[in-house]
Design goal:
Number of strands: 10
Function: Involved in cell shape control.
Helix content: 40-55%
CATH architecture of the largest domain: 3-Layer(aba) Sandwich
Bound molecules: guanosine-5'-triphosphate
Structural class: alpha/beta
CATH topology of the largest domain: Rossmann fold
Strand content: 15-25%
Shape: globular
Subcellular location: Cytoplasm
InterPro entries: CetZ, CetZ_C, FtsZ/CetZ, Tubulin/FtsZ-like_C, Tubulin/FtsZ_GTPase_sf, Tubulin_CS, Tubulin_FtsZ_GTPase
Family: Belongs to the CetZ family.
Protein name: Tubulin-like protein CetZ
Number of domains: 3
Number of helices: 15
Order of helices and strands: EHEHEHHHEHEHEHHHEHHEHEEHH
CATH superfamily of the largest domain: Tubulin/FtsZ, GTPase domain
Length: 393
C-alpha cells in the first residue's frame, strides 16, 4: 500500500523519518512522499531525511518559529490559518500513486495534537483517498497538560480521520528509562510494525509472488468503519538445515508432512504471540471489529495450514467474522506475524483519557456557569450593573 506521510509536530516528524528509514533499510517501497509540519523552526532543522522543500513552518506570524509551547488550541488555530501552505506542498506529491494518507502526531504537545486533526480534515475534504491518523499517547508522568492535550485531541482526531492507529508511549517504556530516552528505539519498533504491514503487497522489491497477497484494499477494508486500531507483532528466526540437491530429491512424503507441521505450528504460535503480546495500544482483543493478519518470511515457512488455523483462532479471540489474512513472501532468516486489530473498543488508556476529557469539560462548564451566574446577580442589582458594565466601555 502506497502512503503519503505527513508528520505534525516533533514526534510526528521523527516517526515519519523512522518510517522512511525502515523503507530504505528493508529495501521496500511504500512511501510515495513524506513531509513535516511544525511551529518550531529548530524541530524542523533537526530532521535528516525529509528534504527542506517538504518541511513547512506554520504559525510564523503568531509564534515566530518558536513553537506553541504545548498550547494545543493555538496549535489548531495556526494549522487552520496556514493549512494552505501545507496543502500546496501535498499538491506536489505524486498523489495519483497514493493509496492513503497517514497523518502522524504526538498527542501530548501543542503542535501535533492541535494541528493534526485540522490538517486531516482538510485532506479529507480535498482528496478521495482515505486519511488515516497515527496518534502517539504521552507517558502518564509527562504532566497534566500533556494528558489534557491528549484527552482533548484524541476524540477530535478519531472523528477527523478514516481510522486512528494508536501508539502508547507508556506501554513501550523499558524499566528505568525516561520517556524521551527510548524514543529512537520505540520509533524503530513502531516503524517495523507499520513498515511490514504497509509494504506487504508491494512485493516487487523482493521478487517472490504471494499465494494470497495483502493488497491495499485488504488494509483499507480492515480500517474502514473508523475508530481506533492497534498493531501486534512477533518474529522468530528460521534455521532450516540447508539441504543439498540429493537430499532434496530423496525427501519423502513423511519429511514433507513433518516440515509443514513444524511450519504450521510455528505460524500458529507466532500469531498468538503477536496478538496476546505487547500491542502498540494495549487493549482487550475481544470485541475488535475487524482484523488483518500478515505473515512475512520465506515462502516455504508460510504454512497454508498455519495461516488458516491462525485466522480461525483470531476469529474466536476477537469475536469478529471479518478477519483477513495474506502472506508477504521475502528472502529472510525470519518469519514475522503482524496483526492489525481495527475498531477496538475495550481500551483502558482511552477510558482514562475520556474521563480526563469529561472532567476538564465539566470544570469549564462550572467555571462559565459560575461566572454567568455571578454576572446575572450583578446585573440584577442596579449599582452592581454599573460595576459590571463599566469596564466594557
Ligand atoms: N514515540 C515517540 N513519542 C515522542 C517522540 N517525540 C516526542 N514524543 C511524545 O510526543 C508528545 C508531544 O511532543 P512533541 O511532538 O514534541 O510536541 P509538538 O507536537 O511538537 O508540540 P509543541 O512542542 O508543544 O509545539 C510527548 O508526549 C512526547 O512524549 C518520539 O520521537 N517518539
Amino acid at each position: 500500500m502506497k502512503l503519503a506521510l505527513i508528520g505534525v509536530g516533533q514526534a510526528g516528524g521523527k516517526v515519519v523519518e523512522a518510517l522512511c528509514e525502515y523503507e530504505a533499510k528493508a529495501g521496500v517501497d511504500f512511501v510515495v512522499d513524506a513531509m513535516a509540519v511544525n511551529t518550531a523552526r529548530a524541530d524542523l532543522a533537526g530532521l535528516d531525511r525529509i528534504p527542506e522543500s517538504r518541511r513547512v513552518l506554520i504559525g510564523q506570524a503568531r509564534v515566530k518559529g518558536h513553537g506553541v509551547g504545548a498550547d494545543n488550541e493555538l496549535g489548531a488555530e495556526v494549522a487552520a490559518e496556514d493549512a494552505d501552505e501545507v496543502l500546496s506542498v501535498v499538491d506536489q506529491f505524486r498523489t495519483h500513486e497514493v493509496d492513503a494518507f497517514l497523518v502522524v502526531a504526538g498527542l501530548g504537545g501543542g503542535t501535533g495534537s492541535g494541528g493534526a486533526p485540522v490538517l486531516a480534515r482538510e485532506l479529507r475534504r480535498l482528496y478521495t483517498e482515505p486519511v488515516y491518523g497515527l496518534g502517539i499517547l504521552p507517558g502518564q508522568d509527562e504532566g497534566g497538560i500533556y494528558t489534557l492535550n491528549a484527552a482533548r485531541s484524541f476524540k477530535t482526531f478519531v472523528d477527523e480521520v478514516d481510522n486512528l492507529l494508536v501508539f502508547d508511549n507508556d506501554a513501550w517504556r523499558q524499566s528505568g528509562e525516561s520517556v524521551s530516552g527510548g524514543f529512537d528505539r520505540t520509533n524503530e519498533e513502531l516503524a517495523r510494525r507499520l513498515g511490514v504491514l504497509f509494504s506487504a503487497g508491494e512485493t516487487n522489491a523482493r521478487g517472490a509472488v504471494a499465494e494470497s497477497v495483502v493488497d491495499a484494499s485488504e488494509i483499507i477494508n480492515t480500517l474502514a468503519g473508523g475508530g481506533v486500531s492497534t498493531i501486534g507483532f512477533a518474529s522468530t528466526a528460521v534455521n532450516r538445515p540447508k539441504r543439498g540437491l540429493l537430499s532434496r530429491l530423496s525427501k519423502t512424503a513423511d519429511d514433507e508432512t513433518r516440515d509443514d507441521g513444524e511450519a504450521a505450528n510455528r505460524v500458529s504460535s507466532l500469531v498468538r504471540r503477536a496478538t496476546l503480546g505487547r500491542l502498540t495500544l494495549p487493549c482487550e482483543v475481544a470485541g475488535s471489529e475487524r482484523a488483518l493478519l500478515v505473515l512475512a518470511g520465506p515462502p516455504a515457512e508460510i504454512s497454508r495450514r498455519g495461516m488458516e488455523r491462525s485466522r480461525r483462532w483470531l476469529e474466536a479471540e476477537t469475536g469478529s467474522m471479518e478477519v483477513r489474512g495474506g502472506d508477504y513472501p521475502m528472502k529472510s532468516g525470519h518469519v514475522a506475524a503482524v496483526v492489525l486489530l481495527a475498531g477496538v473498543t475495550d481500551v483502558p488508556r482511552v477510558k482514562e483519557l475520556q474521563r480526563v476529557a469529561i472532567e476538564a469539560q465539566r470544570d469549564m462548564h462550572e467555571k462559565s456557569a459560575t461566572s454567568s451566574a455571578k454576572l446575572q446577580e450583578l446585573l440584577r442589582s442596579g449599582s452592581a450593573e454599573q460595576d459590571a458594565l463599566e469596564p466594557l466601555f
